[in-house]
Amino acid sequence: MKLTEHFTREEMERSSTAIRLGIGNTCPPELVPNMLICATVLETIRAHYNKPIHVTSNYRSPAVNKAVGGSPTSAHSAALGIDFEVDGESNLAVCKWCAANIPDYDQVIYEFGEAGWIHLGLTNGTPRKQKLSAVKQGKKTVYTNGF
Ligand SMILES: [Zn+2]
Q1: Spacing, Cα 82 to ligand 1 middle (Å)
Q2: Contact 25, 58 (CB under 8 A)
């Protein structure tokens, strides 16, 4: 099902973890409006770069979120978190662009450098406007302020 011109519900629900573990990842109807908010923001980013965007995660069912070790309060659980990359663009540059141009974002996280991805968290509440970088220290993920 098409959410916006370039983004489908299937793409926003796709989860390699769900496939690998054979568990469901269907967004409940009450969270589809949040998914639509994300797709609309992705269209804004896509229009700026005029390049395809690869979404690796949006909605995560409780089982999938647990399996990936996600925080119980993760924006992904509410279909308000997006992990993505823009074709041929540096993740750092996209993080900076998002923080400067997406109004009322909750979090932009530069996740694990250029080999990683961009996490954009949106909210229906008061946006925290956090800019963070995630790095691995041993097996632990550590978040630092700024990109
Ligand atoms: Zn994420």
Answers
A1: 6
A2: no
